[in-house]
Amino acid sequence: MGKGKNKYFDVHGPVFWPASILIVIFIAITLIVGEPMEKVFGNIQNGISDYAGWLLVLATNSFLIFCIVIGFSKYGKIRIGGKEAETEFSTGAWFAMLFSAGMGIGIIFWGVAEPMFHYVQPPIDLDAPASRAEQAMTFSFLHWGLHAWGIYALVGLSLAFFAFSKKLPLTIRSVFYPLLKERIHGWIGDVIDVIAVIATLFGLATSLGFGVQQVSSGMNYLFNIPDNVITQVVLIAIITGIATISVVLGIDKGVKFLSELNIRIAAVFLAFIVVVGPTLFILNSYIENIGHYFQNFFFLSFWTEAYQPAESAGWQNSWTVFYWAWWISWSPFVGMFIARVSKGRTVREFVMGVLVVPSLLTFLWMSAFGGSGLWVEMSNPGIISESVMENVSTSLFVLLEQFPLAEIASAIGVILVINFFVTSSDSGSLVIDSITAGGKLDAPVGQRIFWAVSEGAVAAVLLIGGGLGALQTAAITTGLPFTFVLILMMFSLLRGLKNEYAKSIQLDQETDFKKYSERIEKLIAKRKKIHKEQEEESESNKN
Amino acid sequence: MTQLLLFLDLSEMDSSVMQSAYRITKKMKVSKIGLCHYVEIQEHAYSMDSFYNNPDRPIKKLIEEELIDMATEYNLPTDICETIVHDKGGKEDLLHKLNNSDYTLFVLGKKTVHTGTGAFSAKLSRMIEKPILFVTESTKLDLQKILIPTEFSQHSKKAAKLLDEFEGFKPEEVFVLHVFRIPPSYFPFFGKKSDKLIKEIEKKSSKKLDSFCEKYLQGYDVHKELIYSEDKSIAKVVYDFSKTKQIDMVVMGKKGKTDDDEDLIGSVAAKMIQTDKDIPVLLVE
């Protein structure tokens, strides 16, 4: 196992083994040390937010601006995978996969809860409930909108470009080819990939762990199923089982199918809330929220609480900066997945597709669910906010209770949550799989099962033994080092695109067709003559 | 062992390429020779056979026969020759295949007299990521006097190291030339180009040149040259030098220190392979 090609395992040893061993060691330490571990990482995370918050804010803005500039520059016409490359997936399926991998699960939980938090505890003091609601939506848009997708777009575009256009393996290390050249195949590359694997696995496993706690409390709320570790472990087993089947089936049949199914269920769910909820309010507020978001775009994007009095500062650390670190720590995973499904798109299509469409969908979702929550809350203060503050995971179900057909809607909600978990888990396994197989796109089945199951196992172990919080915080703390990786990525991608553009200009130049044609005609005539002579010669020899 | 790849466009230039290849086989150990022709019709989405109305024999086959005949004519060992007639997939596909092939030295003709030929391969050459030798019509590739122009960058180090990589290859003399100038930013501080400043830079450059030769060119008969260029372009200085010293081949890096990523090839290298320079140039990636 582990060496050479094998039917079930085909790993790149220098990444697979260190990553696997480190994961085991990390988990063992977390289980043994227990709570102090969480404190240590919590302190690191606080330190990052306090001292490097400004850097994260600046970097996130730079990534977004970079992507937009690249997309609309002359490099926008470059097609990922070469001029003749064709897309692997229809545009609809592409959006479905982008959205499912990138946000899916988070938005279902936070869609109702986040605007409610900002409404109840406004980041910038406002008195009028209407202004507070508006501000709450705008901040939610900020956290889930263009900036998050800008991070993903940068990583995704870099990876897609170097994997498909430059024909390098689809792993994080390939992005550094213009800077490191052949050294990416050495130990530096291995280290980059090992960090990416660990960050991805812990990110996924801890979200899975926390996620099932939330699903379980939701199910308890709905169906009175006991909310305990056993239920949660069973849920992990179910989710991991479906995810395993999905990754075994591969990206075409498994992941794509589930993502599309997800989007359909989500669309039905969204349509449902728009119809039974405050329809006109949702539509009106969607338009107004977008306007408000763009109007305050620069102010909010660059806001760092610099003039906030010290005693009321700190809001940004626990929200905006947290989100930026969170998206960045997820970016190797989501970026690789986006890259994997984006062959054949032009850079402009890619940037527009990854930034705009998912953002608009997210905004619609936020306006429908979060907006309805605010609408209920504004007329009946406390009705939703109290339960949200108490338990975030029930917020969606509390909201649905306010409208007709609550049971059916809640059941769809649970299915949607589970399905979104499956799509995060299966796409995550494919990504880790690809990195540990040295960048191969279709690693053997055994290996896919291994990573899908590992993810579930890590989540279950942490759930039973404690330490989910510690590891999740640890995963987020990788956000800061990855920020530097992403900054380098901008330079690297720019160099790669410049070079590719120059090549495409060269290749486009017409060759002198007429002169070439004459040469070929001359050659045909010459060869015909030779053949004729040869035939005549062999004829005369026969005679 | 060197593995040669010859770009042949079925024009008059091919004879220079073939002659050079023959000379290379005499000077180096060559284990394989690729005879590569890029079928330009494919860019117009025609099928070659239908275009020329030639149903009895595929044209690809005719071209292959022609290439092998040429190799025989120029006394190349045909037992190690293989033909690569690329008629599908476009330039990008050919480039990708060649860059990932095991060929170690590419040879192509650059026109100085014959117009309308060799232009395509010169374009392709910019995207080849292997050492690539440009020969002209009048090339007599003796490979006795080699010139390495250097500005001590990574690329020129690679150029120097490349000599060792060709098995059996031992030039009689290696000239190493460094052309120096006074960087423009010096002027406001130092006044006009003072002799003292020139001397100072010359001294520094001389030291660098010594250590460059010592490090990368041990075992060769090396001649070191420093030239101060007041306003002549570096390429011109290198070219004039190579003509006066009767250099057989210039070996240099594809890019220099200051070249941007958007230049596939550095400015000096680009000038050296321009059609007006009648000298064989080996560019090193």
Automatic annotation (TrEMBL), chain A:
Q: Which UniProt keywords apply?
A: Cell membrane, Membrane, Transmembrane, Transmembrane helix, Transport
Q: Which residues cross the membrane?
A: 15-33, 53-72, 93-113, 146-165, 186-210, 230-251, 263-287, 321-339, 351-376, 396-422, 449-468, 474-494
* One Pfam family this sequence matches: BCCT
Enumerate the InterPro entries for this protein: BCCT_CS, BCCT_transptr
Localization in the cell: Cell membrane
Superkingdom field: Bacteria
Name the membrane topology term: Multi-pass membrane protein
Query: Which family does the UniProt entry place this protein in?
Result: Belongs to the BCCT transporter (TC 2.A.15) family.
From the Swiss-Prot or TrEMBL record, give the protein name: BCCT family transporter
The scientific name of the source species is Mangrovivirga halotolerans
From TrEMBL, chain B:
Q: Where is the UspA domain?
A: 144-284
- A single Pfam family it belongs to is Usp
Gene3D superfamilies for this protein: HUPs
Q: Which CDD domains match?
A: USP-like
Q: Which family would the database say this protein is a member of?
A: Belongs to the universal stress protein A family.
PANTHER family reported for this sequence: STRESS RESPONSE PROTEIN NHAX (PTHR46268), UNIVERSAL STRESS PROTEIN UP12 (PTHR46268:SF6)
How is this protein named in the record? Universal stress protein
Q: Which organism is it from?
A: Mangrovivirga halotolerans
